[in-house]
Amino acid sequence: MIFNLGSINIDHIYNVPHFPAPGETLLSDSYSKGLGGKGANQSIAIARAGGQVVHIGAIGGDALWTREILAEAGADIAGIAVLKSATGHAIINVDAKGENNIVLYDGANVLVSEGQISAALASAKAGDWFLLQNEVNNGPFAAKLARAKGLKVAYVAAPFEVGKVKNMMPFVDLLSVNEGEAAMVCEALGVSEDEIPVEKLLITRGSAGITYRDGASRYTQAAFEVEPVDTTGAGDTFMGYFMAQLDAGKAPQEALRMAAAAAALKVTKKGTAGAIPLLEDVAGFIRSSPPKSS
Questions:
Q1: Quick one: fold of 2-288?
Q2: Could you tell me the pTM of the whole model?
Q3: Which residue in the list 11, 230, 236, 247 is annotated as catalytic?
Q4: How much of the chain exceeds pLDDT 70, in percent?
């Protein structure tokens, strides 16, 4: 079982010919609205990968439909509170190359109470996973509580703030960062990559693929060759699939390959949560699309 303390956002997505320059008013080519947020994306990816996930988070009364989408995907939504606050949202611009830039409003995402977290973890068992990222509040409290109950803690250090990462490190079993963030962690702690003090370290390296350290073992995974349409949520898709595979007892290399394929397939479609692929589609994609040479 995976307990995911994660953000739930309403995504406002604008397809634009290019990102607007300072002072420029730009007419978008299209607009859509849907479910997003790193946490919600990860929970849907876990569920679509065949995993069991309890989502812990908060929304306002304006977004009850977001819970319905999570439930339809297979996530347990009992840990989601409805508060008297605006739901978090994101303004997402996607350019002609499929790249994105994003402005976030945190809203209810940063109003999750300690009591809510404690109640959601009441059914957790030793050996379960606890997943979280930086779009929600009470991260150190939640991770410390999860550790005390015998859960393994996976932490996606995004959006990246070095102070938050330093506060979280004593409670983390698996740290997920990109290459630039890994360098900032090293600088802040005065260590090398190999010395970052976690048992498991996942580093995404763009077109160079992914590296994963699990104790003394080292793994690499090349990227899959695709033509990107929209990169929004690719990292969340990767992490959700990766966590689902680890929780199911899959070997790290198999988990990395499945996650990389899911992320690659996701970027071939527009949107965020709705574009996260199903397990059978990912398996078919792997059979037909080998990763590029690393």
A1: UDP-N-acetylmuramoyl-L-alanine:D-glutamate ligase (3.40.1190)
A2: 0.92
A3: 236
A4: 98
